[in-house]
């Protein structure tokens, strides 16, 4: 080893990387050294706003930026004795945050697929541009996940805000702008701005952008690992970060989370257990599918196939609050209930559903309730219902060309063991559990480490430490339940849509 190489290795051994992620219901941050070892971690809960049925919003200043400041200030003291070498950020996405020319938000951010306000605009743009052509160019059909219909909704319903809009930001790009002054978006996030990004050209589709977002300037494009700027003097004073600190482009949280657990090779699938359930599978080539999302990957020249449920952990959190139960107690009680929850089925569509049914008017259903059922059966049925949704999505991804060669589980829902076991039992598939399941914040540190060249052996940062294997006896039992789960949605769709319309009407009257 040369003296120069040895000095460089010594310098990197003292380096730490900061990763910050803004999630749906909480934000997390980590300091990680060059080998992937976590030096410090922190988290902050926050509220999500639901001003109307189907609307889900965050205030960028009081949620995103406030959480970023608190997490950074808590973590920085742990960096003493190290060299802070890079910063990576991510956030919920895709989202729409209209901002003026200085980057000041003009309204709360409209969140990803859980916000279903733009249903009319989805239909309008699909009719205008053609469903097949949208799918061919962008890799995804228009749905509540797409940003384009929400831009049109904004122009139609809040024209004054639209007239003042000069920047279209997402969570990560908002943070990057606050820190560096750059107006830039990563390719993956841009690929979820359907229909204004051309997936194969890896660029904005200028013709369609002018039709969907007329008069608006679109951000520069970069890959999540690219250093796009450095912390400016004003941001340094406000955050305590060193001026000149390299900042990478960032991305949507689920893709940072997939990176955090080594989901990078074709056939690798991440199952993200969180407030919502999300799936990311790496592919050799984009595979457009009408009910899934074909997107750019987190690394240059990669593609991914993605799917997402509108609620998962949000349902169990709702139930815990409803029955006034402690998480550990409910997990233990539900673990004593046999597979099938003593004859209960749940449709987990409490906020509509994204993939694979793409139905914003779907609603939650408990079927089979009797006076003999208690909170233990209800909680297990909730875990099972969400897990049936996981199987439904994995089957759709297989039909789209995914192989699901390797499943890696990550997120808060992996704690306790019961939920992951139920998923393996229902799907019949093994799941690998990595050493660190802290999530997207860890992935951001890794992306920053790759972008700055600081990360040592990034492919082995987060080794697998456990494998969840299916119980074949339970799998056979769940096969029958799964068939009825699928039938239950078909049988109750008309009623659910009527009730959803009633809920919207009641809100308008109020």
From TrEMBL:
Which Gene Ontology MF annotations are present?
kinase activity; phosphotransferase activity, alcohol group as acceptor
The answer to keyword Kinase applying to this record is yes
- Please report the stretch or stretches of sequence annotated as the Carbohydrate kinase FGGY C-terminal domain: 270-450
Keyword Kinase part of the UniProt annotation: yes
Keywords attached to this Swiss-Prot or TrEMBL record, sorted alphabetically, are: Carbohydrate metabolism, Kinase, Transferase, Xylose metabolism
Carbohydrate kinase FGGY N-terminal domain sequence ranges: 17-255
Q: Which InterPro entries did the record assign? A: ATPase_NBD, Carb_kinase_FGGY, Carb_kinase_FGGY_CS, FGGY_C, FGGY_Carb_Kinase, FGGY_N
Q: Name one GO biological process term.
A: D-xylose metabolic process
Q: What family does the database annotate?
A: Belongs to the FGGY kinase family.
The record's PANTHER family line, in alphabetical order, gives: SUGAR KINASE, XYLULOSE KINASE
User: Can you name this protein?
Assistant: Xylulokinase
According to its UniProt entry, this protein's organism is: Saccharopolyspora dendranthemae
